[in-house]
Structures are given as structure tokens and as C-alpha cells.
# Entry
Amino acid sequence: MRRSIKTEHVVVILLVLLLTGGGIFLASKKRSSTSILEWIEQIWSVIFFRDTVKDFVEHLGNQIGNGIVQALSELAIRAEIAHISLDISPSGDKVVFVGSGVGSTDLYLLDLVSLKVTRLTETSAREASPRFSPDGKWIVYSASSDLSDSNPTHHLFIYSLNENSTEQLTSEPGTIDYSPRFIVGGKQILFVRRLIHSDNDKKSIQERNYLLDLHTGQSTPLNCPFLGTLRPDGNLMICPSDETESVDWLRLKIVFQPLAKQSEMQTVNIVIPNTLGRVLAHNLVSGMEAEWSPNGRQIVLTAINKDGEYEIWLVDTVRWTGRLVAKPKHYIQSVRLTPDGKRILFLMQSERAASKLELWQLNVQSGNLSRVADHRLFDDPLNWKRP
# Structure
């Protein structure tokens, strides 16, 4: 029997689409780092009291069929795999990654030569965003509290590969700390802090880059109006300029001494020509990945072109020239350049199972793509064997 659409359903659906569109419009106008997906999830959770995008998609499918549901399903799938990430060791022969574990996820180490997998953490927390230190002896990562907690927290931890021990780095209440990485020779950690403010039952989210000094334990916000990308030596930061309204966002701001006081901070506005400027600026504004090479001379970044295709770019930050090095067929994330600059490792959506990720590598010189591991590496790491 065909299900009829009730008037109240139509009203609610139109309201969702209106609010979602308004959220996207405001996010683009403010050039906020908050992703469009987060806007949508917040709206859905308020209206439908659903915890996940997937629940909403199923609910909407029961009301209006398959029309818009296909596009929303893609967002749901990406939300489910967004926490999976990796990093390459300074020696280039090992990869730390997030895989299925005790607390939803744990951290594992993959030897790229022997293809042996070793578990690093085994906790009730949900580990994410692991990064090697420059000497390869430490791994910094973020982790939530026990997922059964009604008000989970998210803080930074550091793991010693020599001692197989973990230490908590941040514990600020009411914050979500994530996406950490070592800079300044491993003496400091760059991370993103999300502050959630509640006022008369209204919630607002603010995100900002912070630097954590491992000697003093102090966290300091960076002087950049938007989330940017910081060079490994900590002395130069690129962020979208707040002094232009160009629809192409060609103008970027180079910030020297990002930890200095506002009166002492040096900034230079630059205009990167043509396609490269649009790719880099759009990448920063939309919150996509922009990864510095260890020597600070290159940036590898992901982008989506006007045809909706995914792209991987390499940017020379000395000459400010760049080139398109690959167009992967499917959604990609966690793109990393090997220390020797010859390969790029990344995660790509599986062609056989859209809700799964695979580990791929790109030969920078030849442009050849090859799969390193299928999705079973992340689903069942300790029992994975290369086909």
C-alpha cells in the first residue's frame, strides 16, 4: 500500500530544508570552520530528536521515498567514517591508524614492510587523529571519554612507543580538543579546541587553533580569525583573509609569529594566482585537509572541483606554485605526504562498500595509484592479511 504524505510531514520537511539552507548560507558568509554537516546534524537533532544523520535519513525515507535521501545517505556514510585517520612515521616505514577496537576504536601500528599490525591502545575511550612526533618516539591523539557517558568529553593524550604508556595532556572542562599534531621539533602541539556555549537553551559553537607547550602544559590560542594551517616550525601560518569578500577567496593571509601579541604580530596579505589560489583558499575555508611536509616546503591538500570530483594537489610554498597530482574516483580523507616526498598515502571510500575505507598510495612522480590495504585493515586490524 502506498504511504500518504501528511500535511504536517510536508511542513516539517520544508522547515528542515529551509533551516539547513540557512545554516549553509550563514556558514559560507561567515567563512566559519564549522562544517555544513555539523549545521545539518544540529538542526536534525533539535527537530527530530535523532542522534545521528542515519536515523534522520531513515525517518525521511519513510515519508517521501528515495528522492533526496540518496544525497543525505552519502552524508550519513561520511559521518560514520570521519573518525578514521592515519599518520606516517618520520622513517616512512610505519603507519599509525584508527581501527575498530574495544571502545568503538583503538590505535594500531602497521609496518609497511612486514605488513604486521600491532595494537597500541585498548581502552573504553574512542581514540582518533593520531600523529607521530618528529623523532618517531611518541604519538599524540585525541580521545573521548567512555561512550556510555551522557556528557562525553574529548581531550588530548600522548603515547610513548618506548614505554607503551599513555599520559593525558588536556583536561579543560566544557571543551572538545581534537586534531592534534606536533610542531617546533616536537616541543609544542597544534590542536583545535571547540567551545560549546549554552545561553537560555541556545547553543553556539566556536572553534579555534591552540598551541600546547609540552614543557609548561599551557595552551595558547593562535592569532588567526579562522582555522588555518601552521608550518611545522611554528613561525608561519596560512589562513583565509578577513579583509576581502571575494567570492573566489583568492586573497590569503600569511601570519608570521602567530603566538605573538596582536600589536607585535606580522601579517602579509598575498594573492595566489588563478586555480591554485582558489583551491588552497577553498580548502581552508571549508575545513578540508591541508598538510605541510616535514620540511615546511610543500603542502598536500584535498579539494573538490566544480564537477564534484575529488582532487589531490601539491603546493610549493616557496614559489607558491602548485600542481594537480591525482583525481581519486571516490571520497578521500587523511591525506599524508611521506617524509621523502615521493608518495602520498590516503584513505579512500571503498568501491564495493561505501561505508568502508581503504588505504591507498600515490606515486608523486608517476601519478600511479595503488591500494595498500582493503577495509578489513580498519574493521578487524589484528586479523588483517593483505589479499
User: Anything to note?
Assistant: The chain has a mean pLDDT of 76. DSSP finds six helices and 24 strands in the chain. The helical segments are 7-30, 36-48, 53-64, 69-81, 274-286, 376-379. The first helix runs from residue 7 to 30.
